[in-house]
What does this fold into?
Amino acid sequence: MTRQERSISNSILREKRAKKLVEDTVTGLYSHEYKKPNGKWYIKLIAEHTGLHSDTVSKHLKNLSHRSTIIT
It folds into this structure.
C-alpha cells in the first residue's frame, strides 16, 4: 500500500470514528444532557465530550438529522 492510499484509508477510518462518536453521544443514555430546552444540541459540549472539533460535530449532526428522526 502506498503512502497516498494509506492516507486516504486513514482519513476514511477517522471520519467513520467521528460519525460513530457523535451518533453514540446523541442517542445514548445521557443524550438529554446535550440537548437545549428549545430542542437543539449543545454542539460545544458534545465536542468537548467526544474530543472532536465543533465543526465536525455540527457536520455529523446535520447528516444524522437528515437521515433519521430519532434525534430531532
